[in-house]
Design brief:
single chain; alpha/beta; six-stranded mixed beta sheet; five-stranded antiparallel beta sheet; 10 helices; 11 strands; binds adenosine-5'-triphosphate; binds magnesium ion
């Protein structure tokens, strides 16, 4: 028996007759880091938008912990524990790193306003924020104004504000995009670290990152699932190599 946290059944999204996601059957195992890969325009981001209900599926089903959440509104999806990493723009650039994490924590507590009136709960909030900063190795940047953070550290802050929402399943869309080597290595190690006790589904283009930390990989091509398996299996799949022809076929083979 496998423990599936998230499953899609024939998940489909059409935009005015164009099928961006076509009958996709995903099975994400609890505790895994699962990669969703595929060429540009394959439907990866659309899939994420369907899972968080930013977009409504045209047909198909989404099951989270065995429950059908296909019709659940975005706020309920988030409350149930599926959290997508905020984009950098969602972090307040002119507040300190600490303040951003505190806001993330407050947001996760939603409407429980009375909580914030007592001084002791405020110091609990500060303690929790500091613990999150330590978890993502940003404690020494607590008082830094966010706009002054190096790029890779901003992504770490995004991960901290996502962790503040206590995700059971964390969705990361291209977490290492636009980074230099050092930042890629640091954020990759961070994702591995925060995956403990959680499940992560990530869209990623960097094959070294995928081969390094991902347990399983699903490959999309033109909206449809092309292959699924471990890095070893997927990277040897002739159809996958064909789909990545030219640009990344060598990367697929050479990442180790
Ligand atoms: N709102 C929309 N209306 C019409 N077409 C859309 C819409 N959103 C996405 N598409 C199309 O759906 C397809 C899949 O797009 P999507 O952004 O999911 O791809 P992706 O795999 O994330 O690509 P990339 O690697 O470039 O980020 C593309 O052809 C895109 O043009
Ligand atoms: Mg995308």
């Amino acid at each position: 028996m496998t423990d599936v946290i998230l499953e899609t059944k024939n998940l489909t999204k059409e935009f005015k007759g164009f099928t961006a996601v076509s009958k996709v059957n995903l099975q994400i195992q609890r505790g895994h880091i699962h990669a969703l890969i595929g060429p540009n325009g394959a439907g990866k981001t659309t899939c994420f938008n369907l899972l968080t209900k930013f977009l409504v599926p045209s047909s198909g089903q989404i099951l989270f912990n065995g429950r059908d959440i296909t019709m659940a509104p975005p706020a309920q999806i988030a409350r149930s524990g599926i959290i997508r990493s905020f984009q950098i723009s969602a972090v307040f650039p002119h507040l300190s790193v600490m303040e951003n994490v505190r806001i993330g924590l407050q947001r996760s507590l939603g409407t429980s306003f009375h909580f914030w009136k007592s001084g002791s709960s405020l110091s609990q909030l500060n303690d929790r924020a500091m613990a999150l900063l330590e978890e993502v190795d940003l404690a020494s940047f607590a008082d830094t104004i966010t706009v002054d953070l190096p790029y890779g550290r901003k992504r770490a802050l995004e991960i901290a504000t996502t962790l503040a929402m206590e995700p059971e399943l964390m969705l990361l869309d291209e977490p290492t995009q636009g980074m230099g080597h050092e930042d890629v290595d640091r954020v990759t190690a961070l994702i591995k670290k925060v995956s403990a006790g959680r499940t992560i589904l990530m869209v990623e283009h960097n094959m070294a990152v995928i081969s390094g930390i991902c347990d399983r990989i699903s490959v999309l091509q033109r909206g449809a699932l092309l292959a699924e398996g471990t890095y070893e299996q997927v990277s040897k799949n002739p159809q996958v190599m064909e789909a990545y022809m030219g640009t990344t076929a060598t990367e697929l083979q050479g990442a180790h």
